Amino acid sequence: MKNASPDFLICPVRGATDEEKAWIQSYIGKMEAKGFKIYYPARDTNQEDSIGLRICSDNRAAIRKSGVVRIFYNQGSQGTLFDVGMSFMADKLLYIINPRQDFAGLNNLADWLRFPLEYAYNFPAELKKNAEVYQKAEELKQRILNREVVPINFQGITPEFLLTFGMVFQAEKPILLENLAEVEAQRTEKKSFQNVLLALDAMRRGTKS
């Protein structure tokens, strides 16, 4: 059934290879030729943002409005895992669009990198193992929902951080940045998750980041 609302497409943006970009563009073209609506962040979200907060907010709104969330899974993409966390918190169905020959390689991923596979409804059941990471994510989701303010001690851009932060951001929970000075020392001139963390912490404190 064709979608009334655009399906949000999670895929690498800054770090995508030319081959990945070509495959994704071809996929979007085929789907849109069939009458499907696809929200493609590289095209439909303004990527000019020195902090990154507005980009994250625009994508959050698009995910909320979406029908199915589609994903071209590249485990090295930071934005991909963040968007997966947002989609999970928004209770969206996740559909992997990678070519089927890629699935065997994806199955070898460990820990939190496996989560999108155990979350996706179309990933082959025999490759999902025992879905332990999915259960951990469900428990984490409930802990976040039960908090008024979510403390974050930032220790680097890890898969667990990206998925957790995506869930927190989608839930619009205020954050308490426990190591503010350390993160401030990592502020970047261009958009980054460090900049977004600092902006959100400043919003909670009622100051300028």
Care to give the gist of this entry?
This protein has 209 residues and is an alpha/beta fold. It has helices spanning 18-33, 41-44, 53-65, 78-89, 103-106, 115-119, 132-145, 159-171, 180-184, 193-205, and strands spanning 7-10, 38-39, 69-71, 94-96, 150-152, 175-177.
What does this structure look like?
By secondary structure, this protein is α/β, with parallel strands linked by helices. It has one domain. The protein has a four-stranded parallel sheet with strand order 2-1-3-4. Strands 5-6 form a two-stranded parallel ribbon. Helix 1 links the parallel strand 1 and strand 2. The model has no long low-confidence stretch (mean pLDDT 91).
Strand element count: 6
Overall residue-averaged pLDDT value: 91
Structural class: alpha/beta
User: How many angstroms does the end-to-end distance come to?
Assistant: 45 Å
Number of domains: 1
The Cα radius of gyration reads 17 Å
N-to-C SSE string, H for helix and E for strand: EHEHHEHEHHHEHEHH
Q: In percent, how helical is the residue content?
A: 40-55%
Q: What would the principal axes of the Cα set say about the shape?
A: globular
What is the makeup of the main sheet? Answer: 4 strands, parallel
> Which strand-content bin applies to the residues?
5-15%
Instruction: Give the uncertain stretches in residue-range form.
Output: none
Strand order of the main beta sheet, please? Answer: 2-1-3-4
Instruction: Tally the helices.
Output: 10
